[in-house]
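User:
Note these tokens:
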Amino acid sequence: MADQQNGGPPPTMPYWHVYTDAEGVSRQERFALSDFTFEGIEPQTAPQWNDKQEPSKANVTFTVLPVGWVGQWHENPRPQWIAILSGRWFVETMDGTRVEMGPGELMMGEDQNTRARDGRKGHLSGTVGTEPCTMIVTGLDVTPTVNQPGRFK
């Protein structure tokens, strides 16, 4: 295929998906975006690999979590992409899975509609290490899904 000859094989981009299962328990698993096409973003620009998501309104927030910050058990306020820029943080879901993420890692936070169990609802998160964690958070104006892990290609 011409795309593969010019741009190489289509890439994948890993991400963590924090989601709610059918029983209302938050979980997280690693998946990969893989629906990339080799095209310019405008006719006059050189082609690049793009994985275009469904259009939606979005709210972008740049966040700095201080050293020692802990966000007690809570749900993501809306489905949101979180990209770590510097520092490290952790996310622990109700199933007991704890993942640490650092610069360049990507997460989809979609644990809305969880059901409280043993004092846990949503996820626990906090900084790791001796430096703040900076991130860009893109909140989407979409309806959250339930029990659809890895729904992004």
